[in-house]
């Protein structure tokens, strides 16, 4: 569509919105809008309406809304951290998958991550689904990469020694699935039993993924606890579940094994550009000379693109909260379960009831638009919403068996699709942004696509002769047979001493995690690698003990041990010191 | 594989008392304890109030524990500390692990479960908000302060008026921290009256009843909590009462849950009213030769009761080994009007005097406690005031039972007419 037509269409569709000084400019099919919106809702709505228009490849939403604060530029350090052929910004699943794939080639690669560990953004807080692609809008980049990526997942997980279960997904159709459809009610069961399955099966065939129809009798055999209101189910058997943070840690460790350098606690604050080419990145720890940058910075990707002068999209943060239930109830489902609802929404697949690779049950996620990029609080309303929504799928499930809940923030763009392409006006800058679900499943395919782009952009990529695709399996004592455990204990008695009583995690595993290629230096980093603190008592018992081990192994005074980020101090000092302070003051 | 007559899982006050009683009768006894020392939760309880009834002394928890540890040492009782039991089988094999022996099994003739309890978590009460550092359950802070010498925080808000919360309110204050207040969801406190007086009133720490926390602000370390008064009818926050309190620590004292993961490995189901196994007057569970005592059965208020009932378990275990314990048709003991639960849950033996323990589910002034066998009233007792946090006792005298063929026994509590 040419710009004039597009402009007309946009103006028409936004005509009734309460905007002031609304201006639209279009360049390279990227739409920039400016003006004033009376509230965040309108700011969102405008962006999303334009995002739905065919042909729009990006939206830069510069509408000002109440509470908008521009991001301040941070100071960097000028110390040189060396140079690299490629710098990847962001060590989430996207950045680490790209790094691992790139490490197959004879190039120097550096990952910079602003947090204290890998996987600290949405990567550690999603529902771990390796989606098949059936729930994605056909024709989108995310759908295409999801299908491709999920087929690669099982082998990759095996090579990296990461948990993965081919659990399959049942899409449950009930008489309520078509509640919103305006047809006479006698037609609804007919449509539900025949038309919907036909549509989904056809979509699956087009996408190249196996899809099957499951009649009610078989459904109740395979899922005895599912709601009796289910009419039938559609099965997507290539669905899987993994451990997203373990997967990301494994990708990063394998990348490091193969020569990649990882800088944690290193935030990119600026780019040095010479003759429309990237020449340097500036971070809070120093500068790195490079000519290729991959922007995989999650919720910060648009800000970083802005810093590089190549802003082509705006990210609108969308929180997802998930509730985790006790392992005791893992047998209530044999596949992941989700509802089918008409009309389907473009930005959420609706979530469902899923298993984890560790044997817990998850319900969720929610999809809450919010202004703040880093707000991962879980609200009362979200908890209620999740419990109310999914209890209909599994009416006899004991919701009191709740263990914990958490949230992550997705990084969707207004076109609600991935943006994986070279920047229009800056050579060497590659966007790998706008990642939301199915980012995890798509990660291996995203990585391959980025390699293709790098080749097209002129990077010489030759395969390494000594690339090692296998990451050694971490010792997980509680998964081993008694004989295997005894063998490990003979070599290292610390594998015989249990520290986390809920998950049966040993001191040996905790010590291992502290000394791995990416050392676990915080309580949460240890938790993600070992599971210590993820059980019923939520670290009530093991927190003092794990903190002591970390203190001992890193020669850090116990009172300085932190939970995750820099200011997340667990303690304020040793006892008696507050009284000393008080006494000094009175003197 | 080692063999023992009696293996006791847990070396806290329950395990210690059971072990001593068993060892007095010349059986081989082993205590398996996951911590590096015996005593269970007691070593971190440096406040007094332990042993008032059973020892006629006012001891600290640590002193009370040492009293029994000394006796354990005097008897020929084997001890394995720093050892975690992974599994118990129906034929009484115990699989455990530690760093010296690795994985090993022990065969027992009888087992006494004495694993105690764990604390209810923030997630279990569905507190919304962020998940920063600085949120602790009260028992964890007690360990940090009293055993590790670490201060968790200095500006404290406490949710829950259970005993451990009240004790920690005082403990934090004595260490120089500022406790802004204790907030309790219910309209009455959950802890013992003596603790309300000695821990809050004596230190001018305000207690806010019918309040809860509706938001926790972080994100890295606790910065503030938002509290609100709750409308007792709708159980929803009253909007005008919302208040945000600056603090750096949130302590949760919102209940204890008997720790029965091992109990489940042997195939026992739990009583939903107590979260513990069903036991009879011999402290025997529904698996022959497996006994349970202490907080793993139900949460006690005073350790003296734990000791008494654990001694019963020890004696019964010896009886089981030497002569067997025959079971009659079980007579259920049911919680009647205003009663939350009763222990034991049923009678299966011939014991003449049976102590019954129970809790009321609300405060009743001038209460009449009644024990009925089918429709006959066996015992009636007056109490000036009864409260949920204060466990009650009644002795059932078999002589008073109308016949031997009783369907069930019921305990009830009503206000006097």
Question: What does the model show?
Answer:
The complex is a heterodimer of chains A (587) and B (417). The longest helix of chain A has 21 residues, at 187-207. Chain A has 587 residues and is α/β, with parallel strands linked by helices. In chain A, strands 13-6-5-17-25-24 form a 6-stranded mixed sheet, sandwiched between helices. In chain A, strands 18, 20, 21, 22 and 23 form a 5-stranded antiparallel sheet that branches. In chain A, strands 4-16-15-14 form a 4-stranded mixed sheet, with no helix packed on it. Chain A starts with a helix and ends with a helix. Chain A is built from 15 helices and 28 strands. Chain B is α/β, with parallel strands linked by helices and 417 residues long. Chain B is 19% helix and 37% strand. In chain B, helix 1 (13-23) runs parallel beside helix 2 (61-74) and helix 4 packs parallel to helix 5 (193-200). Chain B is globular, with a radius of gyration of 22 Å. Chain B starts with a strand and ends with a strand. The mean pLDDT of chain B is 95. Strand 28 of chain A pairs antiparallel with strand 11 (150-151) of chain B, so a sheet runs across the interface.
Describe the structure concisely.
The complex is a heterodimer of chains A (about 575) and B (about 425). Chain A is an alpha/beta fold and about 575 residues long.
What is the topological layout?
The complex is a heterodimer of chains A (587) and B (417).
Chain A: H1 3-13, E1 20-27, E2 30-36, H2 40-51, E3 58-64, E4 80-83, E5 86-89, H3 93-102, E6 109-112, E7 129-130, H4 141-160, E8 164-165, E9 169-174, H5 187-207, E10 212-215, H6 216-222, E11 230-236, E12 240-242, H7 244-257, E13 261-263, E14 268-274, E15 277-283, E16 287-289, E17 292-295, H8 301-307, E18 318-325, E19 336-339, E20 352-355, E21 361-364, E22 368-369, H9 380-391, E23 402-410, E24 419-422, E25 429-433, H10 439-456, H11 482-491, E26 498-500, E27 505-506, H12 507-514, H13 523-530, H14 543-554, E28 573-574, H15 577-586
Parallel strand pairs in A: 2-3, 4-16, 5-6, 5-17, 6-13, 9-19, 17-25
Antiparallel strand pairs in A: 1-2, 7-12, 8-12, 9-11, 10-11, 14-15, 15-16, 18-21, 18-22, 18-23, 20-21, 24-25, 26-27
Chain B: E1 2-9, H1 13-23, E2 29-32, E3 48-50, E4 59-60, H2 61-74, E5 77-80, E6 84-88, E7 93-98, E8 102-113, E9 117-119, E10 135-137, H3 138-146, E11 150-151, E12 155-159, H4 163-174, E13 178-183, H5 193-200, E14 207-208, E15 211-217, E16 224-231, E17 236-237, E18 243-246, E19 249-252, E20 256-258, H6 261-265, E21 270-271, E22 276-277, E23 290-292, H7 303-323, E24 331-335, E25 339-343, E26 346-347, E27 353-360, E28 364-373, E29 376-386, E30 392-397, E31 409-415
Parallel strand pairs in B: 1-2, 1-8, 2-5, 8-23, 10-19, 12-13, 12-19, 13-14, 24-31
Antiparallel strand pairs in B: 3-4, 6-7, 7-8, 9-20, 15-16, 16-17, 16-18, 21-22, 24-26, 25-27, 27-30, 28-29, 28-31
């Amino acid at each position: 569509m040419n710009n004039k037509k597009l402009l007309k269409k946009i103006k028409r569709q936004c005509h009734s919105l309460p905007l002031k000084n609304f201006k639209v400019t279009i360049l390279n099919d990227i739409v920039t809008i400016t003006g004033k919106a009376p509230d965040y809702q309108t700011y969102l709505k405008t962006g999303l309406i334009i995002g739905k228009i065919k042909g729009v490849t990006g939206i830069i939403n510069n509408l000002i809304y109440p509470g908008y604060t521009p991001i301040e530029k941070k100071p960097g350090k000028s110390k040189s951290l060396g140079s690299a052929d490629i710098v990847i910004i962001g060590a989430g699943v996207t950045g680490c998958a790209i790094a691992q794939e790139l490490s197959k080639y004879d190039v120097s690669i550096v990952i910079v991550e602003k947090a204290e560990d890998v996987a600290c953004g949405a990567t550690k807080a999603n529902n771990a689904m390796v989606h098949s692609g059936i729930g994605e809008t056909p024709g989108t980049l995310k759908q295409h990469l999801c299908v491709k990526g999920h087929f690669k997942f099982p082998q990759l997980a095996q090579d990296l020694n990461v948990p993965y279960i081919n659990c399959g997904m049942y899409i449950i159709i009930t008489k309520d699935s078509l509640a919103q459809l305006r047809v006479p009610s006698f037609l609804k069961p007919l449509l539900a039993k025949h038309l919907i399955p036909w549509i989904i099966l056809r979509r699956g065939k087009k996408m190249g993924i196996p899809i099957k129809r499951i009649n009610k009798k078989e459904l109740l055999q395979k899922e005895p606890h599912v709601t009796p209101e289910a009419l039938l189910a559609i099965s997507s058997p290539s669905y899987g579940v993994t451990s997203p943070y373990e997967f990301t840690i494994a990708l990063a460790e394998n990348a490091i094994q193969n020569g990649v350098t990882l800088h944690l606690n290193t935030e990119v604050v600026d780019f040095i550009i010479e003759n429309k080419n990237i020449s340097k990145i500036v971070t809070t720890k120093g500068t790195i000379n490079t000519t290729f940058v991959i922007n995989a910075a999650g919720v910060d990707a648009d800000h970083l693109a802005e810093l590089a002068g190549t802003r082509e999209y705006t990210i609108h943060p969308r929180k997802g909260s998930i509730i985790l239930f006790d392992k005791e109830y893992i047998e209530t489902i044999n596949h992941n379960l989700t509802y089918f609802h008409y009309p389907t929404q473009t930005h959420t697949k609706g979530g469902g009831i899923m298993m984890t690779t560790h044997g817990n049950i998850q319900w969720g996620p929610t999809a809450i638009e919010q202004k703040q990029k880093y707000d991962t609080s879980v609200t009362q309303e979200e908890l209620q919403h999740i419990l109310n929504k999914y209890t209909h799928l599994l009416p006899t499930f004991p919701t009191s068996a709740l263990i914990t809940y958490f949230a992550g923030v997705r990084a969707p763009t207004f076109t609600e699709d991935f943006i994986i392409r070279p920047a229009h006006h800056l050579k060497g800058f590659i966007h790998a942004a706008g990642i939301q679900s199915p980012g995890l499943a798509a990660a291996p395919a995203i990585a391959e696509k980025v390699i293709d782009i790098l080749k097209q952009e002129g990077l010489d990529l030759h395969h390494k002769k000594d690339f090692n695709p296998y990451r050694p399996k971490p010792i997980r004592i509680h998964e081993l047979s008694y004989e295997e455990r005894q063998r490990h204990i003979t070599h290292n008695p610390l594998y015989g001493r249990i520290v986390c009583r809920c998950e049966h995690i040993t001191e040996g595993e905790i010590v291992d995690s502290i000394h791995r290629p990416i050392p676990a230096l915080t309580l949460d980093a240890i938790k993600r690698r070992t599971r210590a603190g993820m059980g019923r008592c939520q670290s009530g018992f093991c927190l003092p003990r794990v903190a002591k081990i970390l203190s001992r192994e890193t020669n850090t005074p116990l009172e300085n041990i932190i939970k995750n980020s820099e200011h997340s101090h667990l303690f304020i000092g040793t006892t008696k010191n507050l009284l000393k302070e008080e006494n000094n003051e009175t003197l | 594989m080692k063999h023992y007559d009696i293996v006791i899982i847990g070396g806290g006050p329950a395990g210690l008392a059971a072990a001593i009683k068993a060892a007095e009768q010349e059986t081989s006894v082993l205590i398996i304890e996951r911590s590096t020392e015996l005593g269970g939760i007691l070593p971190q309880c440096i406040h007094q109030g332990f042993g008032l009834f059973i020892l006629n002394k006012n001891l600290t928890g640590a002193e009370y524990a040492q009293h029994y540890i000394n006796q354990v040492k005097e008897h020929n009782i084997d001890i394995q500390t720093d050892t975690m039991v992974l599994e118990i089988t129906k034929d009484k094999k115990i699989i455990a692990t530690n760093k010296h022996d690795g994985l090993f099994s022990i065969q027992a003739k009888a087992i006494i479960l004495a694993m105690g309890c764990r604390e209810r978590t923030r997630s279990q009460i569905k507190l919304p908000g962020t998940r920063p550092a600085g949120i602790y359950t009260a028992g964890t802070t007690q360990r940090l302060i009293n055993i590790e010498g670490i201060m968790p925080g200095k500006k404290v808000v406490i949710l829950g008026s259970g005993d451990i919360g009240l004790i920690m309110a005082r403990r934090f204050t004595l260490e120089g921290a500022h406790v802004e207040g204790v907030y309790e969801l219910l309209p009455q406190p959950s802890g013992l009256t003596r603790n309300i007086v000695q821990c809050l009133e004596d230190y001018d720490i305000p207690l806010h009843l019918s309040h809860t926390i509706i938001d926790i602000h972080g994100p890295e370390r606790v910065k503030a909590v938002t509290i609100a008064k709750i409308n007792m009818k709708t159980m929803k926050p009253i909007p005008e009462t919302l208040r945000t309190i600056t603090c750096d620590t949130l302590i949760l004292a919102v209940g204890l849950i008997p720790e029965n993961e091992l109990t489940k490995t042997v195939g026992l189901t739990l009583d939903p009213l107590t979260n513990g196994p069903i036991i009879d007057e011999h402290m025997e569970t529904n698996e022959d030769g497996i006994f349970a005592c202490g907080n793993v059965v139900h949460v006690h208020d005073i350790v003296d009761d734990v000791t008494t009932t654990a001694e019963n378990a020890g004696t019964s275990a010896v009886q089981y080994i030497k002569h067997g314990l025959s079971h009659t048709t079980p007579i259920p003991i049911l919680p009647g009007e205003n009663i939350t639960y009763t222990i034991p849950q049923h009678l299966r033996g011939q014991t003449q005097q049976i102590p019954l323990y129970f809790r009321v589910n609300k405060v009743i002034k001038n209460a009449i406690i009644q024990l009925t066998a089918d429709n006959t009233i066996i015992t009636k007792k007056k109490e000036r005031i009864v409260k949920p946090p204060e466990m009650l006792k009644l002795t059932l005298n078999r002589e008073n039972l109308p016949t031997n063929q009783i369907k069930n026994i019921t305990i009830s509590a009503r206000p006097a007419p």
